């Protein structure tokens, strides 16, 4: 995971629940690519075909509320979204996103100001969010170093795998 991300913003509103992120009718699989094909389908039909690798989602308050399954952040990550910025996140979504290595940043100011289609740059190490289209900058709380390591590794499982491999080698 690169500490600097840059991409186009896809904007969503408040209370985007996990059923909007990945509809329950597709939860008969945990295959990331199958989930990605239906990412955000009930919020924006066709999103999965429009989004490009490295682009970002900007949500309002309570992003990821609803189900506790990891399918929602997994679908977003597998769709190629590099980061989610929101005014606030549901706690279980926040933790699940970190566990699977999807960077997420809370910034009510960035959430309110960033418009769909704007080019956004994110510095994960500092939490700095820059809207290159409008010229505005915002500060989110940066991840503690151990959480940056989890995200860089690609999630909790990959992080543990790396640590076990390094101890054996």
TrEMBL record:
Domain of life (superkingdom): Bacteria
Subunit structure: Heterodimer of LeuC and LeuD.
Function: Catalyzes the isomerization between 2-isopropylmalate and 3-isopropylmalate, via the formation of 2-isopropylmaleate.
Pfam families reported in the protein's UniProt record: Aconitase_C
InterPro entries according to UniProt: Aconitase/3IPM_dehydase_swvl, AconitaseA/IPMdHydase_ssu_swvl, IPMI_Swivel, LeuD, LeuD/DmdB_bac, LeuD_type2/HacB/DmdB
GO molecular function: 3-isopropylmalate dehydratase activity
Pathway note: Amino-acid biosynthesis; L-leucine biosynthesis; L-leucine from 3-methyl-2-oxobutanoate: step 2/4
GO term, biological process aspect, one: L-leucine biosynthetic process
Gene3D superfamilies per record: Aconitase, domain 4
Occurrences of domain Aconitase A/isopropylmalate dehydratase small subunit swivel (ranges): 56-104
Reactions accelerated catalytically: (2R,3S)-3-isopropylmalate = (2S)-2-isopropylmalate
EC number, as in UniProt: 4.2.1.33
The UniProt record lists the keyword Protease: no
Family the UniProt entry places it in: Belongs to the LeuD family. LeuD type 2 subfamily.
Protein keywords: Amino-acid biosynthesis, Branched-chain amino acid biosynthesis, Leucine biosynthesis, Lyase
Origin species: Hydrogenispora ethanolica
This protein's encoding gene: leuD
Protein name: 3-isopropylmalate dehydratase small subunit
Statement: the UniProt record of this protein carries the keyword Translocase: no
